[in-house]
């Protein structure tokens, strides 16, 4: 990659080529981060906060890798992607190879197992980026757990995507942790195109208006 | 898996393990990738890393030749040292092999460059 900074639109157009989950798992809430949201999020982190270039970045719930690949394209020093799911990691590894990016490393790990004690990962990264599970599929609170792990792994900031409807709740959580919580952008997240929620007639679903979820890009620091 | 990642991995979350670090590396396939040299980034990472564990890991995969056992003084301005560290931390990749817990001998397989740190249910610490 040349050092010339990619514009947001250019980044978004590159990220269109990141393959997404072949068979998204409902229980793991594998909603792919759309290229648009990924590009908005990363471009903001880069231009407004200057927290990607030369940084050690961790991507919690890396999935197919759209955030990690985008972060690498914007010049971060290294990216480490954590995910529990073997299939997502396999797709992610293919994407990374396709993009010819050499500074992303992947680990298959249960992020929640790092909640009480993150061992040698403690404060090893500068910045965490994540699109955590929303915590609506019998895994209530997992979004908050991802944030907590993110804060213990990093020295500078956590950037995360959340449903706007959980904003007040997350603000309170951040207060409990003595963390600063700020919403840096509000976007619409198109879910219906990816997870079909067990409905039988997929044609019908494609013809209805996709369900949009109002999403916050959050910036959390301690 | 790069040695940068290895330097942060431990098996401390396995039941009965206190530290679980460093994990011993048994590699059956190693590759070297080309990553842009970024002296500022490498210097900052060295400050955060456990150098003795990196030295041991390099020995595990027979890459310790030329590597100082302790961090060189004023390494930030020592380009030769930073290049050695850059190669070891970012360019060398373990593609296939095992990571072995120093306390229990539990193996964590590395497949297609990805270490699998997932536990079976009976290995998870109950009190956490």
From TrEMBL, chain A:
Domain of life: Eukaryota
Single GO molecular function: rRNA (adenine-N6-)-methyltransferase activity
One matching Pfam family: PrmA
Record PANTHER family: RRNA N6-ADENOSINE-METHYLTRANSFERASE METTL5
Protein name: Methyltransferase-like protein 5
Record organism: Patella caerulea (Rayed Mediterranean limpet)
Classification of source organism: Eukaryota, Metazoa, Spiralia, Lophotrochozoa, Mollusca
UniProtKB/TrEMBL annotation, chain B:
Origin superkingdom: Eukaryota
InterPro entries for the chain: Trm112, Trm112-like
Pfam families referenced in this protein's UniProt entry, alphabetically: Trm112p
Swiss-Prot/TrEMBL GO biological process terms: rRNA (guanine-N7)-methylation; tRNA methylation
Record-level Gene Ontology MF annotations: protein heterodimerization activity
Entries under PANTHER family matching the protein: MULTIFUNCTIONAL METHYLTRANSFERASE SUBUNIT TRM112-LIKE PROTEIN, UPF0315 PROTEIN-RELATED
Similarity comment: family membership: Belongs to the TRM112 family.
Protein name listed in UniProt: Multifunctional methyltransferase subunit TRM112-like protein
Classification of source organism: Eukaryota, Metazoa, Spiralia, Lophotrochozoa, Mollusca
